[in-house]
Amino acid sequence: MCDNKYEEAVVAEPEGRSALSANVLGIGFTALIACLGYGMVKLPGFDHVGPLACAIILAVIYRQVWGYPEALRSGIQISAKKLLRLAIVLFGLKLNVDVIFHQGATLLLYDLGTIVFAITATMLLANVLHADKGLSLLLGIGTGVCGAAAIAAVSPILKSKDDDTAMGVGIVALVGTVFSLAYTILRPFLDLTNVQYGIWSGISLHEIAHVALAAAPAGQDALAMALLAKLGRVFLLIPLSLILMYWMNRRGKEEAGTKVDVPWFLLGFLGMSLLGSYVLADTLQSSTALNKLIADGTSFLLTMAMVGLGLNVNLRELRDKALRPLAAMLITSVVLSVLALKLV
Fold first, then answer.
1. Among 142, 144, 159, 311, which is disulfide-ready with 118 (CB 3.0 to 4.6 Å)?
2. pLDDT tens-place string over residues 162-221
């Protein structure tokens, strides 16, 4: 009996080491492609695309050429699931709730209108175009709220497929980049003050990075207003997530009796927002280096997570699936930009 237990222990140890190796190598693999994505933005033509989109492109290309690295699956899934949630939690530090309530309360109405319009218009167009509803909803939320971070945050609530999440993040990152560049080209021809231009950018562009890219050329005042308007949309991610949870729970009861678990990482997001707004506010405002470390670390973790999701994308299956949701999102984004321009 003792011999048998010894043999079982001997067998179990290599298996444990093998699992640990797969986890470490899988996480390292996503980190490697993420680093390549960061390096890719140094190339001409990719400098405005951003490392997130570049990393997803590389991950998708790897999957199509060499297939999914099955031996590293467990580690890749850790990046795609656990690191994704960690990145969303840390993303909360970018949200200063106190500033929004004291300086951006009026902008919240514009932000709310942006979110409602983006989701509603995208889904109506998806219905007209017979587009995939799941991917279209993710794109509508990404357009209305805060791009990749919003899609990553609501995907577990909506029980979205990994390939839909990765494709949605890639599309919103690329489209948002094109729009932000278009804004900078149009700015000299628009009858807007710098502050008005900043508000327009903040309430209509897709991601924080896109808002910063478009608003920075108009000066510090424009950039400050743009980021304030954008942070209001990030704040509204919290009530939107609660609404989606309620909707999914009701639909689950009606269809299959399933229930959506509370996404604890969103509570972490809220907790970090409160921590950064009231406890660490002075420290974060006075330390540029700490702010940069948090921002860069959060972006890199999110990029690693997107690599893990991007490896699930099979272009042969999604080639037809993504075109119509993309069309719905593009039309929504153009109309949103025009309406927001008239409002400011």
1. 144
2. 889 988 988 888 888 889 889 999 999 999 999 999 999 999 999 888 898 889 889 888
Contacting residues for 61 by C-beta, under 8 A, at least 6 apart: none
What pTM, to 2 d.p., does this model score?
A: 0.80
Name the token pair of 39: 């390096």
Token pair in block for residue 164: 């839909």
| Domain assignment present for 170 | yes
> What's the structural domain count of the chain?
1
Question: What number of other Cβ atoms are within 10 A of residue 25's Cβ?
Answer: 16
pLDDT digits (tens, 9 = 90+) for 115-135: 999 999 999 999 999 999 999
In total, the chain counts a number of residues equal to 344
Please state, as a whole number, how many other Cβ atoms lie within 10 Å of the Cβ of residue 71.
Answer: 14
Residue 90 included in any domain: yes
Whether residue 5 lies inside any domain: the answer is no
Q: Kindly list the distances between the CA atom of residue 226 and the CA atoms of 51, 56, 89, 202, 233, in Å, as whole numbers in the listed order.
A: 22, 27, 23, 4, 11
SS3 of 49, please?
coil
Using CA atoms, how far apart are residues 111 and 120, in angstroms rounded to an integer?
14
What is the number of other CB atoms lying within 10 angstroms of the CB of residue 190?
Answer: 13
Is 15 a member of any domain?
no
Q: How far apart are CA 263 and CA 206, in angstroms?
A: 23
Q: Which of 229, 184, 238, 181 is nearest to 208 (CA)?
A: 229
CA angle (152, 154, 156) in 5-degree steps: 85
What does DSSP assign to residue 260? P
Q: How far is CA 248 from CA 38, 135, 162, 189, 253, in A?
A: 36, 16, 18, 45, 9
- What is the rounded CA–CA span in Å between residue 316 and residue 77? 22
Q: For residues 200 and 184, is the Cβ–Cβ distance under 8 A?
A: no
For residues 207 and 176, is the Cβ–Cβ distance under 8 A? yes
CA dist 62 and 111 (Å) reads 38
